[in-house]
Amino acid sequence: MYHKGYVALGIVLFLALLAMPYWVTAGKIKYEEIEKELAPAKGKCVYDEEWMAKYHMELLKDWRELAVRHGVRHYHTENGDFNVSLTECWKCHDYNNFCAKCHNFMDVEPVCWECHYNPSMNYSTVNYIK
């Protein structure tokens, strides 16, 4: 009466198109592919390498909260004591050969550098907010 076959086919096609981005990228984005190209860290990280690869942004957000809202400037883990600051990261990691390579590979653009100093950026090309 209402062309049930066409409606069902339309729903199936709609759901297939909706799921397409997942199917295209499923299993293709792997940290292991870029890991061998990254410059090795010069020291011990806050947590183990696998945890940091997955959750470093959450750690940085927690550190921001600790530093700005609570005035906490030191962080202790089983790997040692760390300053709650991005400069703690620069002690061991080179931005261009570590952070930027991985972010480019994963096609993410962090907004950190709109406010924070990055030791390897060319600030003559940055558009400052006036």
Strand order of the largest sheet: 1-2
Task: Report the sheet-strand fraction.
Answer: 5-15%
Rounded to the nearest angstrom, the distance between the terminal CA atoms is 64 Å
Unreliable segments of 5+ consecutive residues:
125-130
Structural class: mainly alpha
The biggest beta sheet reads: 2 strands, antiparallel
Radius of gyration: 21 Å
Overall shape: it is elongated
Helix content: 40-55%
Domain module tally: 1
What quaternary form is this? Answer: single chain
Q: What is the chain-wise order of helices and strands?
A: HHHEEHH
Number of strands: 2
Number of helical regions: 5
> Overall pLDDT, averaged?
81
Walkthrough of the structure:
With 130 residues, the chain is mainly alpha-helical. The chain has one domain (29-125). 51% of the residues lie in helices and 6% in strands. The protein contains 5 helices and 2 strands; from the N terminus they run H-H-H-E-E-H-H. A two-stranded antiparallel ribbon has the order 1-2. A hairpin with a 2-residue loop joins strand 1 and strand 2. It starts with a helix and ends in a 24-residue tail after the last helix.
Features:
130 residues, single chain, mainly alpha, two-stranded antiparallel sheet, 5 helices
Helices and strands, with pairings:
Elements: H1 4-25, H2 31-35, H3 49-70, E1 74-77, E2 80-83, H4 86-90, H5 95-106
Antiparallel strand pairs: 1-2
Task: Describe the structure in brief.
The chain has helices spanning 4-25, 31-35, 49-70, 86-90, 95-106; strands at 74-77, 80-83.
